[in-house]
Each structure stands twice: as C-alpha cells, then as structure tokens.
Amino acid sequence: MKRRLGLLLKIAAALAVLAVIVIAALSVALKKYLPPDKVREIILTQSRRHLNREVRLQSVDLGILSGLVVKGISVSEKPDFKAGRFVSADSFQLRLKLAPLLHRSVVVDRFKAAGVKVQILRRKDGTFNFSDLMTPSSSSYHSREGTVPQGGATAAAALPFDLKVSEAAVEDAEITYADAALGAKATVSRLNAAAWDLSLSEPFEADVSLALSAQYGGKTCDAKLEWKGRANYADGKLAKMSVSSKKLAAEYAGVTLRAVGQGKNFSAPSLDIRAEVGLKGATAVELNLANAHLSSLKPEPLPDFKGEIDLVSKGFDTGGLQSLGVPKVKVPEAMLRLSGSFEGGDLKIESLVVRVPPMARVDGKGTLLKALSDKPRMRGDLTLSLDTPEFRLSDLPAEVQPYLKRIPAGLIVPAVKVQGRVALEGDTATISPTEIQTKFGKVTVSGTARQPLSPKRHIDASAAMSLAFPEIKTADLPVALPASVPKGLVLPAAKIEGKASLKGETLTLEGFKVATRFGQVAVTGTVDKLLALSPEPSLDVSLKVPETKLSDLPIQLSTAFPPGLTLPGVEAEGSVTVADDAARLRDFSVSVAKFGKVTVSGTVAKLSSGKPSLDVEAKLDMRIAGLTTSDIPYPIPNVGPKVPIPDMDISGKVRVSGEDAFIDGITLKAKDTSLTLSGTAKNALAGKIDPEFQLAGRVRLPAFKSADVPLPGVPKDLDVPASETELHLRVTPDAIRHSSVSFSMAGSKIAMEFFTERKVKLSLLDWSKMDWRQWYFYVKVSTVQVSLASLANISPATKEYNLSGRFHGQISKLYGQLGAMSIDKLKGYLVFQKVGLKLYGLTIADFTGEMNADEDEIRIAKFAGGKLEPMEGKVGGERFTLWLGVKDYLTMNPKVDMEGEFGYVDLAKFLEAKKQFMAKRASLQAAAATEAAKSTETASSKGKLDLKSSIVVRQLDHQNLNLNDIYLKTDLVDITPELADISGTADLYVGIPVKIPGNESKVDPCATSGGKVNNLIQFLRSEPSLRALAGPVSSVNTIAALVPGLPGINTMDFWFVDTRTTFKKGVLTISGTSPAYNKGFVCSNKTGAALQGTIDLPGQTVDLWVGGGKGGKLGATVHATGSMDDPKTNVSLGGEVCPKDHPYCVRQKAQR
Fold it and tell me: Are 1107 and 1116 in contact (CB under 8 A)?
C-alpha cells in the first residue's frame, strides 16, 4: 500500500515537472513564433481593417500564464486621431483556460479592463460617432447574419463553442455623451463592474457601481447607482432568463431608491419587487409588487397582467424637491393596495384598498370588460369613506395657488365626512345614497352614470341638501374683501334647502330655497347644456322680503336716512330663460307692499358679445293708499315723517329697445288729478342720452289751509282756494318744444303756450353747463282773467297787499332771452278794472285803464266812448290820472312819454315808500352779488332811459313843505341810476297856474300862494338828490340872521318858484325858465331867493350861487364851491331878489 502511494507521488511529481517543462517550452515557443511586436502588428492591422479607424498601442504581451496583456490602447474617431479619440484604455488583459479548448469550450479565466474611456457623440443630423461601425461591411457579416436560425433562435445558440468567463472586471471606466441637437451632456464616471462565472448559458453573479452627471437646459443633475445580483442569460432563451437583485441603490437630488427582488421567464415575466424611496435620510414611500405576471414583453398587443401592488406613504414633506418640478406638499400617511388582473382586454380588480388615516377609507372590487374599447362594460362595487379636517386654502402648496386665483386665499374649507357606495354594472355606475356631512349640514347624492369613462358619458343623478349657515361678520373673515363691500357688513344666518337632479347635460332644480331673516329666494326649473360654454337655464324664480326696519339691516347706512325708517315688504316672481345667446323674461313681477306691482317681460340678446341688446318692457300697476312719508324708503328733503301722501294710481309701460328707452304713457291718477308722461330717450344705454319727453294731464287741488299741509316752512294762515292746472309739456335735451299750460283758481284763469328756440346747444340734463343767456323763449298767453279780490286772502303776504279789482287780457307774442332777463318782442293787452293794492305803505285803489303793447310801443290809457283818455285811480285816497307811452321798450334805450295829474300828494308817505323800496332793492342786489360778479356785461352796456313828461300836482304836503300848483316838465335823455350821462332839461313851477294840454279848464289864473317851507335845510339834507343845496341855503340863512331886516329862507312863505335845470352828461345847471332870466327864483312880496350855478353829479362837486333879499333891497349872495358834502362858501353883500318885471309879479300887482 505504501509502495503504491509512493509510486503515485513519484508519478505526480514527474507529471508536474513535465507540465512545467511543457509550459516553459510553450512559453518559449510563443515568444519565438508570436513575439510581442508581431502580436502588436496583428492587433493593429485587424483593428484598423475592421474599424476603419486609426488604432494605437503602447505595448502587447502574450504568455501562457498571463494571457494577452495590452497597454495604452486608443481608437480614434473616423478616420484618424485628428478627428478626436473615440475609445481608450490604460490596460487590457485576456487570459484563457487551455484545457476546455479541447472540448470546444472557450473559458476566459480572466478578463480585466482598466481606465477605459469612451466618448459618444450625437450629431445635429441625428447620427452618432459610431454609426459607421453599425453598418455591415463584409459578405461574411451578411452570411453570418443569414445563418441566424428561424423561430427565435438566439445568437448564443449560433456560436460554435461555449463561452464562459471565470472573472471579468472593468475598473474606473468613464463614458461621456454629448448631444449637439439637444445641447445636452452626460458623463458616467467611476464605473466599476465585476462578474464571476460569466456565461451565456448559466447563472452568474455581478456587481456594478457608477456615478452620473448630466447638464441640460442650464441645469446639472448628479446621480449614483449601485447594483448587485444574479442573472441568467440562458443562451438567449427568454423563457429561462432570470434576474435577481440583492441590492439596487440609486441616489439623485436628495432622493434615494433601495430595491430588491427578482424576475424570471422573460417570455412571460414573473416579478417580485420590494422598493423604498427615501427623502432626507428617512423612508418616504414603500412599494411592493408581488406575484406579478406579464404574458409578454411585447408592447403590442398589450400584454396581460396579474399581480398585487402595495404602495405605502410614511408621511413626508416634498420640500427641497422643487428643482425636480415637484410642488412643495405635505403628503400624509397613506396606503394603496391593489390586487387584480388585465387579461384579454378585461380589467379585473379583485381588491382595492385605500387608507388615508384618519381622513379617507376606500374599499372596492370589480371588473371592466373590454377596458380599452369604445364601449367598456363594468361590474363591481366601491365603498367610500372620507373624513377630512378643516383647512385653509392658503395652506395648500404655492404651486397650486395659481389655480386658485379666483378663490380667496384665506378661505377655510370645513371638515367633511362622506359615506357612500358605487355599484358598477355594464356601462353604468350607480351611486347609492351618499351623504356628504359638514358642520353646516348635509348633502345626499344618488344616481347613475352611463359610460362614465367615455367623452359621451350620460349622468342621471340627484342631490338633496339641507344646510344652515350661522351669521358671519365680514370683518372676521380671513380674506380681504373688495372695496365695494360695505364695512361692517354682517351676513345673516341662512338656510339652504332643495333638490337638484342632473340628467345628461340638463340640471333640474326643484324647491331650491335660500332663507334668511331678511327674506327667501326660491328657484325651480332647468339648466340645459350645463357642460357647454353657454348653458341655457329656464328658471322660475320667486323672492319674498318682509317689512324690515332700516336699523336691522346688516350694514351701516348713511346718517341721511331717518333712523326709524322701515322698508316695505317685497315679493317678486317670474320666469327667466336663456337660449341662443339671449335671456328672456316672462311676466317677471315685483310687488312692493303698499305701493303696487311692476311686471317685466322681454329679451336680452347677444349676451356673449360684451354689448348685450335689450328689448324689454316693464308694466306699472301701482296703487298707493294710506301712506305717509314714513313709508318712503328714502328721505325727502325738508319733509318730516308721517306726512300723509295722497292716494294715487300709477300705470303705464316703460320699454327699452336696443340703446333706446321709451316711456309709453305712464299715468298718475289721484282723485280728480291725472298726469301722463310719455317720451323717448335715444342712446340711453350708449352713454349719450338724447331724451324727448311729453307730460300731459290735469291737476286739481282742493281748497286747503295751512293746517292741511303738514310740511316744515309752510306759512301760517294759508287759505288757498281750489285750483286746476292743465298742461302739455314737451321737452328735449336742448329745448322746450311747443307746450301749453293753463291755471285757474277762484275765478282767475291764465292759459299760455310756449317753447324755446335752439340758438345754441343746451343741456337740460346737466344744469351746471346751461348757458341761460343763450336760451331764447317764445310765449303766447291766450287767456288772462285775474280776480285779485278772490286771491287776496291766500297768504299773509297777499293779505298785506290788500288786493282788489280784476284784470283781463292776452299776450299774443312774447319773445326774449331768459338768461339776460330781456324781452325782444311783445304784443298784447291787459285791461284793469278798479285794481287796488297796498305797496310799500302806499294804498293804490280804483286803478282803471288799459295797457296795449306791440313791437314798437306800450301805451297805458283808458278808452271811454271810443275816446282815448288818461287812466285813473287813487293813491293814498286821492285821485290821479295818468297817460303813459313807452317806445323802443324792448331796446336798451326805451323812450317814455308821460302826462299825469295828482290832486293831493302826501310827500311823507311817498318818501317812506321810497325808503322801503330802496331797502328791498339793496337786499335783492346783495343776494344777486355773486351772479352779478359772473356777468360779462360792462357798465357801458347797461340800458338808458329817455323821459318826456308833464306832471301836475295840485297840492303836496309834508312837515317841511306845503306846495300848491306844482308843474314839472321834463325832456331828458340817457337817464341811468347813477345819472352820470343824463342830458336835457327839467322845468319846475310852483304857484304858477299853467295850461295843461287837454285840461285847460283846470287853469287857475289867480293863485295867491305858491306855498311855504318849514326847516328847509333839514329837508334838503334828508334827501340825497337835494343835499347839494343844503350848504348854500344854510349859509344864506346864517347871513340873514346877522343882517338887520334880512329875512331867512329856512322858513318862509312864497308866491312862486320858477327854475330850470339843464343836464349835460351828468352836470346840471340851474337857471330860470326864460332866457331873460338866468336864475331860478323863489319869490314873494316880502322876500325872495335866487339860484344859479352847476352841480357835477358824477364828480360830486358844486359851483353854486344862492342869493337872498327883502323887497328887492340889500341882500347877500353865497358862492359855494368844492365837495358836495363839505363845500367852501364865499359871502358877498348884495344880490338879486325877485325881479319886478317878472310876469308873475306884474300879474299879481295888476290884480291888486
């Protein structure tokens, strides 16, 4: 036994020595027959021939033990290195096992490549830098390709030998990729790969790791990948191929992936995979794919699938992943479990479980037959349970916010609970009654959906809701409201109830109500084409609002509204239909308690155009009865509460067509009163309204007193007789068209017609732009019948006038300029019969006569027996007569011709009336000061008056004066209130009988006294127009006191006064009435005075001589000069007294 063992050892040793000798011999033989240079030449030659590129080698070594070792190998881009480097490696080693070669088996004992660098380029034309290597270039290639066996035989099966690699490794490789078309770059670096027992027919182990860096679109992406596992190529037989992963690890942008699993039978793959996705070092998502089977890997037809999928979220925040396009969200803990199959086009879900604790729970199962066809059919059921907490929309991710722009960001979505079930059968999904519960109430939904996954789905569902919302203060809302929302608004508590159903694209509302303490809205009807761009509703709407106190409204209103105001109740109902881009209203009525009803019908077309076209009519049927101003929902200026409003009926129509509005006979009736308003407003909706209105009717007012009118500011002691007004008014924006009005009261009546002429464009709609100076008017008064006595007691003011008498007449033409208060044409007459009144303290009575006017002249006189006589009357109880003619009265320079006679005049009363008149005038001027300041008229444009008169006053009485037989004769032109331009003469005679034209019988040839004066200086100073004489008269009177026998003129009796005042541009000269006497005289047989000189009214200066004497003897003369208020005086002895040859003195002497 020992001998045998020793023999074996000796044989083994001999064999070993022999093997060493053989290996050494073979090595020597290889070195001799295949030296490195020859091997190097073979490699270069064959590489260049097959690659058509330049190849470089640093060194080549071939040995029995070491195998083939190549160092410093480089392959150029086509055609040479001038085009760049394609592939390079620091070293390359290939070692074969020799023994298996004897069995037609190639076993690579070791394959190792280090420092490999590959550059891949994709050009702009889509070709690669290796595209030429993919093109067959030899017949051998074609023949080899042609020998691929049919029926799916693999390349491995076509090899003539079995290829195996005991150990393969790639160390520190790098692959770069550049895409010129996309502008992208990618680099695979630190590529290390190892494989053991690598074979095309048997399983082998492998280990791969790499780093990836890519740049595209200005962004850089870095990732890492590791894989360790086992694979079986199985000679290319798909059914036997398999792969199992012991480790798959990837990392990219903070996201990690860990996966293990296996797959086999790649002709009908079976898969089991477990994976984890991590964020920030923690597991975020777990995925488990178990018992998964695919019928094929071919994309067409779509393979069958069966398996189970578990997807679990651990709850995570996606913050930091925005660079990947992932919105920042907080994903809750959740679980999805799906078990099912897809076979023959049918989708079968054996189990579907969704859990989002504690918010949602979904369980279901079912089948979708022919899932990918146009008409899939369903079978199964789904149970849904949802419980979401309250949240704010502002808490949603920022990436979601742009989709919520129309929703207030701070809106709070309340907590919601949902419980329901969906049954699937055929092409129909049936929803069993499903409750959606919130803290505001619940909504119950049920119905069916046919073909729910098709674009032509048909839904037949209904919903019932019962919701109650609490009172909400808008100030407490977490959202900013528009500025148009009133501050302090409080939304009242509301209840919403009703049913809604959807069938196809038609929504039906039934008993849909919204109720608050301020009223209720109810809607019933349908909405067709609900999913179209322009739905078409057809709804019946009703509204009920109870009577509401203004103070109860949930908003703060202006303090201008009375605090106790109550809004009346309102009810509205009607139908609204929208179709063909038009809305139609049918008998939409609005009823206001205590006021009546308005009914609206019509069409609003072109809704989508931005400029809708209206054809709408509103019918008014209103009855107002038993109301007071407290029932009006807005304040009426200067009218207190609880003022009775007359009962009235209002009816008529208002129509809008296109851009025009029409009022078709709106009639107001109240007892015996009736008013009808008609008209048009063209372009009313275009912003350029052009209205034309007509107002016609009759207004009858009963007699009333102050107590019957409970309004503030009503004068006391009113006693207004019954009246009646008939009118027909037609108005356009720029004129009043031909209109008429008549008014009658207590036996008096006035009827007129009038219109305006368009001299310039006027604006009755904007009174601030009205230029009244350009408004020309035309008036015709057909009837004037006025009984002053019947109107005397209307008010305290009319009572003060002591009105009496009557007058009548007509004005056939009246034309003028309203703004300038001027009349350009006048024609007509007025007849006065014993008219009386009290004016400024003066009593005028029995005023009888006639005024006639034409375009040239106004005449005031009396016609008696076909003869023209002066009109007559009484002033202060004393008779007077007057004839008056005014020519050019419509111009700025009227000419007055007047004759009159007064029997007795109480001057004190006239002066008091004058004082009252001046005070009234000053008040009116002050009130009009602002308007006068705006006037563009100059002083030179004011009117002037010419006056030719002859006035006789038989007796004038005053405490300072007592004058008889006064005769005033004037011939003056250019008279103004300031007397600055006055010219002409004025003769004054006192105590001298004269012949009055037409009244010769009144001549008194033997007057014995002109009168007397008492305290003349006081009187002159009291009258502004005479104060220039006060200074000289005072001086004369002072001298008379110093000269013995010289009487004063402050108090005196006289026979006559004879003076002439000549005016020239405001400067008056005092002289006698005859050229023979250049002084004015005041004379008697005992004393006298003479006046001569000038008074400058505009300059307020005097140059005046006043002389006096006794019986024509020694006297004195005072020369006054300078200021009218404070003249300088110069006194000289001597002076004229009454001349003895004066006609009056001669006549008196002869009489004596």
Answer: yes
User: What is the C-alpha separation between 1016 and 246, in angstroms, rounded?
Assistant: 144
| DSSP per-residue codes, 679-715 | EEEETTTTT--EEEEEEEEEEEE--EEGGG---TTPP
DSSP letters spanning 1041-1096: HHSTT---SSSEEESEEEEEEEEETTEEEEE-SSTT--SEEEE-SSEEEEEEEEEE
Domain end: 197, 228, 259, which one?
Answer: 228
Tokens of 463: 């919903």
Of residues 100, 84, 112, the one with CA closest to residue 162? 100
Neighbouring residues of 1041: CB distance < 8 A, sequence distance ≥ 6 = 1048
668 within some domain? no
Q: In this structure, what are the phi and psi dihedrals at residue 612, rounded to the nearest 5 degrees?
A: -60, 150
Q: Would 624 be classed as within a structural domain?
A: no
Distance CA 872, CA 1140 (A): 40
What is the predicted pLDDT for the residue at 497?
A: 92
Residue corresponding to tokens 């830098």: 129
Is residue 18 predicted with pLDDT exceeding 50? no
**DSSP labels for 717-748?**
T-EEPPEEEEEEEEEETTEE-SEEEEEEETTE
CB 1124, CB 1101: distance < 8 Å:
yes
User: Does residue 449 lie within any of the structural domains?
Assistant: no
Considering its fold, how many domains does the chain have in total? 2
- Residue 192: the pLDDT is 92
Is the Cβ–Cβ distance between 945 and 894 less than 8 Å?
yes
Token readout for 395 is 């808490």
Helix, coil or strand: residue 395: helix
DSSP 507: E
Q: Report the Cα 284 to chain-centroid distance in Å.
A: 52
Distance CA 60, CA 79 (A): 23
Give me the phi and psi of 624, to 5 degrees please: -110, 120
Which residues are CB-neighbours of 821 under 8 A, at least 6 positions away? none
**94-103, 269-278, 611-620, 872-881: lowest mean pLDDT where?**
94-103
* C-alpha 877: how far from chain center: 71
The C-alpha atoms of residue 821 and residue 776 are separated, in whole angstroms, by 10
Q: Which of 950, 1106, 977, 1098 is nearest to 1030 (CA)?
A: 1106
Q: Are strands 1101-1110 and 59-63 parallel, antiparallel or unpaired?
A: unpaired
Measured in whole angstroms, the distance separating CA 1101 from the mean position of its chain's CA atoms is 68
SS3 113: strand
Question: Which DSSP symbol is given to 128?
Answer: B
Q: Give which of 660, 663, 625, 658 is closest to 644, Cα–Cα.
A: 625
SS3 state at 924: helix
Which amino acid, residue 859? R
Handedness of CA 5, 6, 7, 12 (dihedral sign): positive
Q: What is the distance between the alpha carbons of residues 670 and 648, in angstroms, rounded to a whole number?
A: 4
DSSP H or E stretch at residue 15: helix 2-33
458: region left, alpha or beta (phi > 0 left; psi from -120 to 50 alpha) = beta
Q: CA-to-CA distance for 1141 and 312, rounded, in angstroms?
A: 147
Out of 175, 202, 228, a domain closes at: 228
Strands (E), 217-281: 219-232, 242-252, 255-264, 270-279
pLDDT of residue 406: 65
The structure tokens listed for 870 are 């002066």
In degrees and rounded to multiples of 5, residue 19 shows phi and psi of -65, -40
**Residue 995's Cα: distance from chain center in Å?**
83
Q: What pLDDT, on the 0 to 100 scale, is given for residue 1025?
A: 63
Asked if 127 and 179 count as a contact pair (C-beta separation under 8 A), the reply is: no
Helix (H/G/I), strand (E/B), else coil: 101: helix
Is there a domain that residue 120 lies in? yes
| Residue among 1058, 839, 1024, 876 at smallest CA distance from 958 | 876
Mean pLDDT of 243-251: 90
The parent domain of residue 211 ranges over 33-131+158-228
Q: What is the pLDDT of residues 1011-1040, one digit of tens each?
A: 888 887 787 777 766 766 677 677 667 766
